[in-house]
Specification:
Layout lengths: L1 H10 L12 E12 L5 E8 L4 E7 L3 H6 L4 E7 L7 E7 L4 E3 L3 H33 L14
Antiparallel strand pairs: 1-2, 1-4, 2-3, 4-5, 5-6
Length: about 150
C-alpha cells in the first residue's frame, strides 16, 4: 500500500503543462543522437549557439524528423519536470517550419485524466484499507466459557 501511495505522490512531482510561450527555448544545431535498443527513448546532443552542449531526451519514433533537420539551425522548446529530463515539446527551423508541434490543450487533457486516475487509485487504496479494517474487527465482549468443557 505504501508503494502505491508513494507512486501516487511521485506523479504529482510532474509540473502542470505550460503554454508554449512559457517553455524553455534553445537555439542551435542537432548534433549526435543515440537510442536505447530496449526502449523508445534516446538522447540528443544539442549544440547551442554559444558552442555549449545540452542533452535532451527524444523519442525513437520521431527519428526521421530529427534526421531531416540534423546539422541545421533549429529552435527547440523543451518541457521539463522536476525529476525527469528535458523532452522536446516543439521543434522548428529558423524559417518557421514546424516539425514537431506542441499542443497545449492535449497536454492539459492528459494531465487532468492522469489526476482523475490517480484520485481513483487513491480512493481504491483507502477503500481497501477500510474493508480490511471492517473484516478484521473483533468484538470486545468475552464469551462465557463452555460449561461442558469444564
Amino acid at each position: 500500500m505504501w508503494v502505491l501511495v508513494l507512486a501516487y505522490f511521485v506523479i504529482f512531482i510532474q509540473d502542470v503543462p505550460k503554454p508554449l510561450s512559457e517553455l524553455k527555448t534553445f537555439y542551435g544545431k542537432i548534433g549526435k543522437m543515440s537510442f536505447d535498443s530496449k526502449s523508445s527513448l534516446g538522447t540528443m546532443i544539442f549544440i547551442l549557439d554559444n558552442n555549449s552542449y545540452k542533452k535532451i531526451s527524444i523519442y525513437k519514433d520521431k527519428k526521421d524528423i530529427y534526421n531531416k533537420v540534423i546539422n541545421k539551425k533549429v529552435k527547440i522548446y523543451t518541457r521539463s519536470d522536476k525529476l525527469l529530463p528535458d523532452f522536446i515539446a516543439q521543434l522548428e527551423d529558423m524559417d518557421g517550419n514546424i516539425y514537431i508541434k506542441y499542443n497545449f490543450d492535449t497536454q492539459i487533457e492528459k494531465h487532468n485524466s492522469l489526476l482523475k486516475f490517480n484520485n481513483f487509485i487513491l480512493f481504491m487504496i483507502f477503500f481497501t484499507i477500510f474493508l480490511i479494517f471492517i473484516v478484521n474487527r473483533k468484538d470486545n465482549k468475552q464469551s462465557p466459557p463452555n460449561p461442558q468443557k469444564i
